[in-house]
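Lab meeting, item 3. Inverse folding demo.
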């Protein structure tokens, strides 16, 4: 049996596939505001991660591939960092530059991870054009790009 590599964050329930994605508004490390409910009509990839998590670090290249593949379509990718500490935006900017992150990174100052019942990272949600969670992927696995890309592609084609 294969287990997805992940880093434990906290205890709590998981699994919100099929439900409305909880709304949030956060600023990314460049200062741009992102409000989930304003993204209706787009497919949203929402990743919860941290700089200290080895599987999260390993997933950066894969997420860059997904971002590059869909960035010109009705698609938004937001990476919410559960890191803590002083100068968090600066820390995330330095990490992003070092690792070559192409997609928006948002410090999770409002515990959005808690709202989504995140129990380990990395965890990725795909949210459909109506704002419903259609898919959840926990951990980082070699076939992650293909699995998530197929889900996004199917949602982009739906009602197109």
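The presenter then showed the designed sequence:
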């Amino acid at each position: 049996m294969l287990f997805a590599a992940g880093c434990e964050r906290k205890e709590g329930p998981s699994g919100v596939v099929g439900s409305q994605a909880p709304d949030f508004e956060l600023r990314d490390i460049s200062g741009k505001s992102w409000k989930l409910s304003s993204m209706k009509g787009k497919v949203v990839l929402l990743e919860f991660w941290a700089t200290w998590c080895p599987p999260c670090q390993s997933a950066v290249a894969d997420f860059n591939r997904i971002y590059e593949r869909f960035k010109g379509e009705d698609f938004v990718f937001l990476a919410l960092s559960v890191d803590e500490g002083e100068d968090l935006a600066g820390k995330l900017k330095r990490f992003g530059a070092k690792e070559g992150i192409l997609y928006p990174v948002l410090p999770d100052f409002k515990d959005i991870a808690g709202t989504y019942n995140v129990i380990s990272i990395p965890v990725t949600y795909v949210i459909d054009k109506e704002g419903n969670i259609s898919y959840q992927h926990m951990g980082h696995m070699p076939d992650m790009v293909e699995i998530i890309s197929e889900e996004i592609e199917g949602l982009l084609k739906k009602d197109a």
